[in-house]
Every structure is written in C-alpha cells, then in structure tokens.
TrEMBL record:
It comes from the Archaea. SUPFAM superfamilies: Winged helix' DNA-binding domain. InterPro entries: ArsR-like_HTH, WH-like_DNA-bd_sf, WH_DNA-bd_sf. CDD domains: HTH_ARSR. This is Uncharacterized protein.
Amino acid sequence: MTSLLDDEYARTILEAARDEPLSADELSDACEASSSTVYRRIERLQAQNLLDDHQRLDPDGHHHKVYSTRVERVTVELRDDGFACTVDRGGGEDAADRFTRLYEGFK
C-alpha cells in the first residue's frame, strides 16, 4: 500500500475525487495523464479499497462510472520492526444509502 500512496497519480486521484465523484476523463484531466494510466491507478486504488465507483445517470439516459475517495486519513508509524501504515476509510456509503441515492436520482 505504501508504494501505491507514494505514486503521484494515485495521490492526485484521491485528492481530486475527495469532494465530489469524478469520471475517469475528469481524473485524467486532473492528473494530466493518459486514460490508460488513470485506469491502472483506479484499479490499484480499488483493490486496496481506497476508491469507490458508482454509476452516474445522465439526463439523456446514458450512464458512466464516477469515482470517489474512501480515505479520510493515512497514518504511517515507525516501529521497532519497521513501518506500519493505517488507513482510516471513514463511514463510507453503504448499499442502502447508495440505493436510496440512486432511487432519488430517478425522481
């Protein structure tokens, strides 16, 4: 995990998607990186449960994924046996909240 958080693109994605969910294209713009670079970082961040995705419905009926950060705090501690990294993911959005938000989006 520390190598992932050491990656500039991964950190930029987490920072950019902290306040509002963003599409991969928007994250690519924020990182000033190619879509393939951003998608690789998205996959790695999701594998570590640091980034969520959900579908955003457009008024024209199309939909696309948007991504939001699940990290509130990262703590690195130096111990006798090496470094320990702790990630506080906060409350996050559970399935019931996600369903309610999706349902209300149809109104």
